[in-house]
TrEMBL record:
Residues 152-328 form the SEC7 domain. Coiled coil: none annotated. InterPro entries: F-box-like_dom_sf, F-box_dom, FBXO8_F-box, Sec7_C_sf, Sec7_dom, Sec7_dom_sf. One of its GO terms (molecular function) is guanyl-nucleotide exchange factor activity. GO terms for biological process: regulation of ARF protein signal transduction. PROSITE patterns: SEC7 (PS50190). SUPFAM superfamilies: F-box domain, Sec7 domain. It comes from Scophthalmus maximus (Turbot). It holds the Pfam family Sec7. This is Putative F-box only protein 8.
Length: 333
């Protein structure tokens, strides 16, 4: 009996592994065969009203039907709790755990140590949270662990959010980042765990990193207010006017023109004209969204005021700018 059980388990394992290498139709056939074997092993299948075996409705899917397999392994009894993932083929167990965050994956590792400490799971968590690190592109040393790397990245991000210079220094000391403006800019661009206030302080101090960060943006075929919103989502605008805000708008204006040469020729725009339009959009955003401004600027007033500073821009284009702010909202919110 034991030998027969081992053969069934080995057959199911091979079948589960085959699901990931076959076309969808053959995957479906193997799924049904695997589900049938699990149901027979669990004791008795379901029957319809005529006494014959009940046929499972065909399912149109392009991958393993994990939910059905779990239900079948439990014999349809919900009170028996969640199935032991070690009873499933490794591919299915890893797929289920891939939906967990780092905290839950650590807890899962206490129950299923081999699956919970799988390097592919922790590699996915690292790269989905910190999209770019210099260490990703280097040959990894012997004994390298993505789980340990995740903990270091998390520690470094917390340190950055308290002190930007110390945080970047921590990443460099661990070999995670190289001290190069482009590498630092890519790390910032593809990471969402950094505090925007601390990030603004760091970019104000490191203008070389700011220059590389601006060049990573692609504003091709984007309407000017939408492009400005995207820019300020990555590089937050300061709360007050000053030299740093002027620097940001200047760099954005040159980048926007570089990404849209056809639009620049068609509308007669220039970096200086875009600079003026960006300031007009920021002032209009404050005027239309601030509860302290009772007399809101009209579309006609905005067109008149903007045309005084940007003579080559058409009334229709400026009017579309006003409509965008009126309907969508602040460009730097």
């Amino acid at each position: 009996m034991q030998c027969g059980g081992n053969r069934d388990q080995s057959s199911n394992l091979q079948m589960g592994q085959a699901l990931w290498r076959l076309p969808p139709r053959q995957q479906q056939q193997l799924q049904e065969e695997l589900a049938g074997r699990l149901a027979d092993r669990g004791g008795g299948g379901r029957y319809d009203h005529d006494g014959g075996p009940q046929r499972r409705a065909p399912q149109h899917c392009y991958g393993p039907d994990i939910y059905h397999l779990l239900r079948t392994c439990r014999g349809g009894n919900e009170r028996r709790g969640f199935i032991d993932l070690q009873m499933l083929p490794p591919e299915l167990g890893i797929t289920i755990l891939s939906y967990l965050n780092a905290t839950d994956l650590c807890l899962a590792g206490c129950v299923w140590q081999d699956l919970g400490h799988d390097e592919y799971l922790w590699q996915g968590l690292c790269k989905s949270t910190w999209g770019h690190c210099s260490i990703y592109n280097r040959r990894l040393p012997a004994g390298f662990s993505y789980r340990r790397l995740y903990l270091q990245l998390d520690e470094g991000s917390l340190t950055f959010n308290a002190s930007p210079q110390e945080g970047i220094g921590y990443f460099m000391s661990k070999g995670i980042l190289l001290d190069h403006p482009l590498e630092l800019a890519k790390f910032i661009f593809y990471t969402r765990r950094l505090n925007w206030k601390m990030l603004r302080i760091y970019l104000d101090e490191r203008r070389d990193v700011l220059d590389e960060l601006v060049t990573l943006h692609n504003f091709s075929n984007q309407f000017l207010p939408n492009a400005l919103r995207e820019f300020f989502r990555h590089i937050h605008a300061p709360e007050e006017r000053g030299e740093y805000l002027e620097t940001l708008i200047t760099k954005f204006s040159h980048r926007f023109c570089a990404c849209n040469p056809g639009l620049v020729r068609e509308l007669g725009l220039s970096p200086d004209a875009v600079y003026v339009l960006c300031y007009s959009l920021i002032l209009l955003s404050i005027d239309l969204t601030s509860p302290h401004v009772k007399n809101k600027m009209s579309k006609r007033e905005f067109i008149r005021n903007t045309r005084r500073a940007a003579h080559n821009v058409s009334d229709d284009f400026v009017g579309h700018l006003y409509d965008n702010i009126y309907l969508i909202g602040h460009v730097a919110a």
